[in-house]
Design a protein that fits this description.
The protein is an alpha/beta fold. It folds into three domains: 173 residues, Cobalamin-binding domain (Rossmann fold, 3-Layer(aba) Sandwich); 256 residues, pyruvate-formate lyase- activating enzyme; 33 residues, no CATH class. It has 19 helices and 18 strands. Strands 3-1-6-7-8-9-10 form a seven-stranded mixed beta sheet, sandwiched between helices. Strands 11-14-15-16-17-18 form a six-stranded parallel beta sheet. A three-stranded antiparallel beta sheet has the order 2-5-4, with no helix packed on it. Strand 17, helix 14 and strand 18 form a beta-alpha-beta unit. Helix 1 runs parallel beside helix 6, helix 2 packs across helix 3 and helix 13 runs parallel beside helix 14. The longest helix has 22 residues.
């Protein structure tokens, strides 16, 4: 046990959303809730501030055609308990780092003596710069539960030996950032304490149906596995989670689901896994156990999954067990691009999997990326053909993103070395390109920003024209669902978000 209970406050910052973004989602902070549960189970007094969930209908103009959704930075700082000793801030997408950095500065001003810790994707991807340009005392790298607890326990004992704690970055006596050896991944995910949802504003999300997936009612987030065994060059997963895929025990996962059904009256579950379906035998076992227990709920795989394990048998089991929405992330329809980005799939296998999922009744969304370094117009045309095939095969929605060199990815390091990317606010703002087509930034030598933007829009138009010509009633059903206030697809979710933002603008 710990020497004493330290007063800890964990903060999920408000989110930055481009004005023209169509995909903004208001999701419960699963990762930080896990950290809160672990630190609290270690005997400490944990409070939680969710900048998004505590003000879902608030937004603030922050310039450059962006809004801050949730509490203002000043309001977050004011809500921190006066007697706090350790403050942890989750720094997610690098696009939001400048705002997160400003929040950290505001916290340091009010709490000059508190131990200030940062963690998340951005700190893990660029640990040295995160320390050098912020007021953080420590940064947690990668999987955070065990590291955070060790830090707080050391603080409680009055002896933090920064050189001995694995998985952190800190400033030495000369102010130079030093990264320690990374902590080994947690192999037994079921030994991690459950997320501390009781100290978060989870009800605010539940009553509105907000989550990672489409609104199918009161939705709780879940993590059935961690990591991804693949090494796609555009993805930061290898640096954040490593390439070890670790699944949970299906029975213990279902115990958690049943607990949420009873405690929170949840009817839908969004899986936040990077790649939930890797091993066919795991997903088959999970689906069978849902039936054996007689459980009834819907669930979704909104973050993108691999197609290899989803054949007719698996697709049928998924639907029967309650899975209604899933996303595929083939990223390209060009064999040469797929080879360069180390995306180990074939387009034919993806089409077969989409057809199986659609035939079993599931709503499928697909993700494509244009503008990879070296990508040619011929390769884009190959993706266009693939996009049409996906629409005809039954996919309901598509997102055509622009490639962005995200910190922590292999391509980022390559482009940074070749072109000398400067990690300044202008660069971070350019990362909004992935979600804001109006501000497309091209990193391909073959496409200008304007041309890449046009290629994206044409890809979207090509998909929906193909899908709707094959199934002409879809757009009418989509509009009808939005008018009824129900959602079945990601496009309906996007339309609902657009209407919500319009209402916020009119009320402002």
């Amino acid at each position: 046990m710990t020497d004493r209970a330290v007063k800890v406050c964990l903060i999920r910052p408000s989110i930055v959303v481009p004005a023209n973004n169509q995909t903004s989602m208001f999701t419960p902070p699963l990762g930080l809730a896990y950290v809160a549960g672990t630190v609290r189970a270690g005997g400490h007094d944990v409070s939680f501030i969710d900048g998004v969930g505590e003000a879902l209908d608030s937004r603030h103009e922050i310039g450059n055609e962006c809004y801050l959704y949730g509490l203002s930075l000043d309001d977050i700082v004011k809500k921190i308990p006066a007697n706090v000793e350790v403050i942890g801030v989750a720094c997610g997408f690098s696009f939001e780092w400048p705002t997160c950095r400003d929040l950290i500065a505001g916290i340091r001003k009010r709490f000059p003596e508190a131990l200030l810790i940062g963690g998340g994707e951005h700190v893990t991807a660029v640990p040295v710069q995160s320390m050098e340009e912020s007021e953080l005392d420590l940064g947690v790298l990668g999987e955070g539960e065990e590291t955070a607890l060790e830090i707080v326990n050391a603080f409680a004992a009055g002896n933090i030996d920064k050189t001995s704690i694995e998985g952190i970055v800190y400033k030495d006596t000369n102010g130079k950032a030093v990264s320690n050896t990374r902590r080994a991944r947690k192999r037994d995910l079921d030994s991690i304490p459950v997320p501390a949802w009781d100290i978060t504003p989870i009800e605010n999300y539940l009553e509105r149906g907000f989550g990672f997936g489409v609104d199918r009612g009161r939705s709780m987030p879940l993590m059935a596995s961690r990591g991804c065994p693949y090494q796609c060059t555009f993805c930061s997963n290898p640096s954040m989670w490593t390439t070890r895929w670790i699944p949970r025990n299906p029975d213990l996962l279902l115990d958690e689901i049943e607990a949420y059904q009873e405690k929170y009256k949840a009817v839908n579950f969004d899986f936040y896994d990077l790649t939930a379906i890797v091993k066919k035998d795991w997903i088959v076992d999970f689906c069978h156990k849902i039936e054996e227990r007689g459980l009834t709920f819907t669930w979704q795989l909104p973050s993108g999954t691999r197609s290899e394990a989803i054949d007719d048998e698996v697709a049928g089991l998924l639907f029967k067990s309650g899975c209604r929405n899933l996303s595929y992330s083939p990223e390209s329809g060009s064999p040469s691009v797929l080879a360069r980005i180390k995306k180990k799939i074939t387009t034919d296998s993806v089409i077969e999997s989409i057809s199986s999922s659609f035939s079993q009744g599931m709503n499928v969304k697909c993700n494509i990326i244009f503008g990879f370094p070296g990508e040619t117009l011929k390769e884009v045309f190959e993706s266009y053909r693939f996009i049409m095939r996906m629409g005809i095969a039954g996919a309901y929605d598509i997102s055509v993103w622009a490639f962005s060199p995200y910190p922590g990815s292999e391509l980022f390091e390559q482009i940074r070395e070749e072109k000398g990317i400067v990690l300044d606010d202008k660069y971070y703002d350019s990362l909004r390109s992935y979600a804001d087509a109006s501000r497309t930034v091209s990193y391909s030598e073959n496409f200008s920003d304007k041309k890449l933007k046009a290629l994206r829009w044409f890809g979207v138009a090509l998909f929906y024209s193909s899908a709707w010509l094959r199934r002409p009633l879809r757009p009418f059903r989509m509009v009808l669902n939005v008018m009824r206030g129900t959602q079945e697809s990601r496009s309906e979710m996007a339309l609902a978000n657009m209407l919500r933002r319009k209402t916020l603008s009119e009320d402002a």
